[in-house]
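Below: protein 1.
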Amino acid sequence: MIKQKRQYKSYPKEFKEEAVALVSEQGYTVAQAAEAVGVSTSLLYKWKEHIEQEQAGHKLVNSEREELLALRKEVKHLRMEKDILKKASAFFAKEMK
């Protein structure tokens, strides 16, 4: 018997937002909204929590995450340059003595 890897269905962000909007804006219960869009209630609860945290500013959106990664990369590069310059200045200070 060969075990197959389980494939999970992925949903676009717009679909998730619309499903959560059924609960938050139109007064559906989570169970009703989950049944209406064809997903499990636990999945809809996760989407709802994620979207609420993004709106409250607790989670980074993709553009913020990308910017953060770019800034971290730049900081790493600048620190490396600074360390090289420190070592070079120490070397030349020894040479001048």
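Below: protein 2.
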Amino acid sequence: MVEVDGDAGIALNECIRISRAVEGNLDREEEDFSLEVSSPDITKPLQVLRQYQKNIGRTLQVKTLETTLEGTLVAVLEESIELEWKAREPKPIGKGKRTVEKKERIAFDAIVEAKVKLIF
């Protein structure tokens, strides 16, 4: 399987072109094979810096060893990402809750898994 990706996504015609180029360089007489060329599934975890940069503004679900956070990816830095989200917390004085803005920086080496959350 060959998986290709690009900053603007990959068109079906590009997958076909790549498949033909790879298959043209392999010898079916020597080896029987099955070739699949596709673009990454949006539900697959992000793996490289470029994938994070491409998804700024989208909602991510990020798992670390300690917790799971869900928020909007607002920045990708050299060694970390920044998420923002809103949360309901008890008021400091009195009854009830209030909505507060939360922001957290998460180091890449602390991320166990990060996925784009699909919102319909």
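The chain has two domains: 1-40, 43-120.
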